[in-house]
Design brief:
Layout: H1 18-25, H2 34-42, E1 49-50, E2 56-57, H3 60-76, H4 80-91, H5 107-110, E3 116-118, H6 119-126, H7 130-138, E4 147-149, H8 151-163, H9 173-189, H10 199-236
Antiparallel strand pairs: 1-2, 3-4
Helix pairs in contact: 2-10
Length: about 240
């Protein structure tokens, strides 16, 4: 399926100002600010229309593109450089896979409105037991809630598969601690400026932090694979 998010403006198409865009998106992305919108524009990720007076105006297509960008940042921890390449392939008429996505989700699936699942629906869709879900929440691997985003399906499905191999959320508590340590390390490496209200600088810091996280993930996966190959080869020998 080919998916495209055109940024062109059709005649008589309804246009939204920055305030209206924020009203529609900040419920889902609380950290979205006018400064961050301008930063994304400066990075070439979104191209709003302009009135004769220079005011930015957004269409529904712009909203969809913004939602995609912000979701890729928030849920997939992708730096803007990677998101830019992803969007370029999308703009060319492709349906690219999300970089680093374990279940190979594509642009078309990202643009489909995600369902909100009740606890019962989540359990049914993943084949998970109530105890495993409770253990996952206790271990901090899934947020405690009455309803869950579709992304929880991937996490819980992975936990179900791991449980069949004897790996439980209890065993992953150490992973959670390592993640928190990584977050603290990244925050020290890319601190937020004490100047408050500077949304552009904060967006730049977030981008730098995501970039560092991506680099750490690349190194971590490489080291784990190398170690597994080495141990497997040693045992064969």
């Amino acid at each position: 399926m080919t998916v495209a998010i055109s940024q062109s403006v059709l005649p008589n198409e309804p246009m939204l100002g920055i305030g209206q865009v924020l009203n529609k998106l900040t419920g889902e992305f609380p950290d979205l600010t006018p400064s961050k919108l301008r930063f994304l524009e400066d990075q070439g990720l979104i191209e709003p229309a302009r009135t004769r007076s220079g005011y930015r105006k957004f269409t529904q297509a712009h909203l969809e593109r913004l939602r995609l960008i912000l979701t890729l940042q928030r849920d997939h921890y992708l730096p803007l450089r990677v998101i830019s390449n992803f969007l370029a392939e999308l703009d060319a008429g492709g349906d690219p896979e999300i970089p680093g996505s374990g279940n190979q989700r594509s642009a078309s699936s990202m643009l489909t409105p995600q369902a909100v699942l009740t606890r019962a629906e989540l359990l049914k869709q993943t084949g998970c037991t109530t105890k495993l879900l409770s253990d996952a929440i206790s271990a901090g691997l899934i947020p405690a809630a009455d309803v869950f985003a579709q992304d929880a399906v991937q996490t819980l499905s992975s936990l179900v598969a791991l449980s069949l191999r004897g790996i439980t959320p209890h065993h992953l508590r150490g992973m959670r601690a390592l993640i928190e340590r990584d977050v603290e390390f990244i925050e020290r490496a890319a601190p937020i400026s004490p100047a408050r209200g500077d949304g552009v600088k904060q967006a730049q810091v977030l981008e730098e932090r995501l970039e560092i996280a991506g680099l750490l993930d690349t190194i971590r996966v490489s080291v784990v694979r190398t170690r597994l190959h080495a141990k497997t080869a040693t045992r064969r020998g």
